[in-house]
Amino acid sequence: MTRRLLARRKLLTAGLKGAFGATAAGLIGTGLIGTGLIGTGLVGSGLVGSGLVGGVPAAQAQGAVQSGALEPLEALSPDQVAALTRVERYLNDINTMQARFVQISDNGGYAQGDLYVDRPGHMRFDYDAPTPVLLIANGLTLLYYDKELKEATFLPLWETPLWFLIREEVRFDDNVEIVGIEEALGTLRVSLRDPDTPDGGVVTLVFSDRPLTLRKWELIDPQGIETQVSLVNPVYGEAIDDDLFKYHDLEVHNRRRPER
Question: Which end of the chain has less neighbouring CB within 10 Å, N or C?
Fold first, then answer.
């Protein structure tokens, strides 16, 4: 893989991959991911603006992520259990979603594009120029495609943070560690990480409340980079063309033509 592609992937994938580490069993991106997605994309000013990550001051949270010192919530209050139950129900009720997304990182990264979700298993992040990146989850694999270099990389979908949001049933179970729940001023924040990689980063799902609506996700990655991916004008429940999740027509240099 060329140095140019590696550099671009590193820039764009702080969001998803960083959220739960390379083998996240629980939560995308394009930062679902991309994603906040495969790798840069997911936390940012919203988290920092509040000064909290799951109730921990942002300055402390960066050190906690890097050191693995951020402890999971062992005993949830009845209100916290109720909040998680509402979030599970809300996410499982989403069949399809289309939205614009805006991805901002505190290292100066900025990108935007179109997001499509068709649960279970399907997601597409199509970045606007000048960012020549396309991310497609087709139920089995996650494709990272560089439109300019015409190079493709594939990952098992269940080894990416995307899997949590688009698997058949969203559950806050043993595959996800809850490190913070915060309800304040009409906003609900749920902070998560992969229990198998506790120093891999923390992702925070941010919802507006009453009615409960996903607005963005925020990420502090292992390097302390903060990224947020915000959803703009999301539309739910409308049919999405299956062809958006196919990639057999993509031109790929020096690689076997991918097939769905």
Answer: N
